[in-house]
Specification:
With 162 residues, the protein is α+β, with helices and mostly antiparallel strands. It has two domains: 3-79, Beta-grasp domain (Ubiquitin-like (UB roll), Roll), CATH 3.10.20; 88-156, Orthogonal Bundle (DNA polymerase, domain 1), CATH 1.10.150. Helix content is 35%, strand content 17%. It contains five helices and five strands. It has helices at residues 25-32, 88-95, 105-118, 124-130, 142-160; strands spanning 3-10, 13-20, 51-54, 57-60, 73-75. It has a five-stranded mixed beta sheet, covered by helices on one side. A hairpin with a 2-residue loop joins β1 and β2 (13-20). α2 crosses α5. The longest helix is centred in the last third of the chain and has 19 residues, at 142-160.
Length: 162
């Protein structure tokens, strides 16, 4: 099997490793780096539990080869906010009860980060469409939508006060 040396920035830290050419990025993140907040759900990119940010864009890491991420900047749920703090989306998911079992939550939050970056004031319909690639089996989505709405307002208030 072919091996490749890859280097990337994960949660602000440079990482280099030799990996098999067939290694999926989700397995690299979880097994090589022990960042287990990125979940493996379906292995087909249908559920979105494996969603991360790659160069600021949300992707499903269960169908993305680690070698393709060479040179990229990756953010996982562990790196979304500074140690001991919450990103506005993390806080909103807590405040609005946007999580139940928590399995989909990291991917849902990271997808929502990308959504709000591109649309800072989405309508309810735009939020529902924006997160439609991430499945939740527990919440019924209403509180997830409320969470994204709260975070959008908070993030707008933060940017206005700067």
């Amino acid at each position: 099997m072919a091996k490749h040396t890859i280097t990337m920035t994960i949660n602000g830290e440079s990482v280099s490793a030799e990996v098999d050419s067939r290694l999926l990025l989700v397995h690299f993140i979880r097994e090589n780096l022990d960042l287990t907040g990125t979940h493996i759900g379906c292995d087909t990119s249908n559920c979105g539990a494996c969603t991360i940010l790659l160069d600021g864009k949300s992707i499903k890491s269960c169908t993305y080869l680690a070698v393709r991420a060479d040179g990229a900047a990756i953010t996982t749920i562990e790196g979304l906010a500074a140690e001991g703090t919450n990103h506005p989306l993390q806080q909103a998911f807590h405040d609005q009860h946007g999580l139940h079992c928590g399995f989909c939550t990291p991917g849902m939050i990271l997808r929502s980060v990308d959504l709000l970056k591109n649309n800072p004031n989405p309508t309810e319909e735009e939020i529902r469409w924006g997160i439609s690639g991430n499945l939740c089996r527990c919440t019924g989505y209403n509180n997830i939508v409320k969470s994204v709405q709260q975070a959008a307002k908070e993030m707008q208030n933060q940017s206005e006060s700067v």
